[in-house]
Design brief:
By secondary structure, the chain is mostly beta strands. 0% of the residues lie in helices and 58% in strands. The termini are far apart.
């Protein structure tokens, strides 16, 4: 069974940077998609960025140019480098993994808090 463990969240001043990591364990299909989602208080969970096993990336318009998603396939780890952080980036960030076998399986980490102060 797949498990995801996130790290790197914390408190940072506006304009600062943070780097989130998410390490997966277990069997992962050759084709897969890893990504980050976030949920602010009173808001719906939203897509931040995704990256496929071949390296194709996708970003929300609100973070494009500021955030960079990357992955290390041998380590089964995905990263989110967040620069020029804004108070509106404050949220719980969740790691996501989609794997493909008999079914498409959706896996989630427990979330890590990112707080950006003004």
């Amino acid at each position: 069974q797949v498990q995801l463990v996130e790290s790197g969240g914390g408190l940072v001043q506006a304009g600062g940077s943070l780097r989130l990591s998410c390490a997966a364990s277990g069997s992962i299909s050759s084709f897969n998609v890893m990504g980050w989602y976030r949920q602010a208080p009173g808001k719906q969970r939203e897509l931040v960025a995704t990256i496929t096993s071949s390296g194709t990336t996708n970003y929300a318009d609100s973070v494009k140019g500021r955030f960079t998603i990357s992955r290390d396939n041998p380590k089964k780890t995905v990263y989110l480098q967040m620069n020029s952080l804004k108070p509106e980036d404050t949220a719980v960030y969740y790691c996501n993994l989609k794997t493909y076998g008999l079914w498409v399986n959706d896996h989630w980490g427990q979330g890590t808090q990112v707080t950006v102060s003004s």
